[in-house]
Q: What sequence folds into this?
C-alpha cells in the first residue's frame, strides 16, 4: 500500500475519533505502541512484531492527519536530505 493511501485510509477509518481524542492523547498512544513494538522485537514472534509495527504506523498516520501533515512529505526528506 502506498503511504498516501494508508494515511487516507486512517483518516477515513478513524479521523473523527482521532480528532476528538486530540494530539496530546494521540502522542501518548503512539508512545505506548512504540513500547509494545520494542517488547515484540525483544521477545515476540515475527507475527507480533508485524502487528505492533502496523499499530505504530497507524498512530503515526493519525498524528500526521491531526497535524495536517503529509507522511509522504515527511518521508521525502530522506530522499533529498537524509540525516547522517
A:
Amino acid at each position: 500500500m502506498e503511504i498516501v493511501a494508508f494515511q487516507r485510509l486512517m483518516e477515513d477509518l478513524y479521523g473523527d475519533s482521532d480528532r476528538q481524542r486530540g494530539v496530546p492523547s494521540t502522542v501518548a498512544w503512539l508512545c505506548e505502541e512504540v513500547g509494545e513494538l520494542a517488547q515484540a522485537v525483544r521477545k515476540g514472534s515475527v507475527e507480533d512484531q508485524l502487528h505492533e509495527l502496523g499499530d505504530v504506523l497507524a498512530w503515526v498516520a493519525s498524528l500526521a492527519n491531526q497535524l495536517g501533515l503529509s507522511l509522504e512529505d515527511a518521508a521525502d526528506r530522506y530522499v533529498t536530505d537524509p540525516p547522517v
The chain has a mean pLDDT of 97. Residues 24-77 form a domain with the Helix Hairpins fold (CATH 1.10.287.1080).
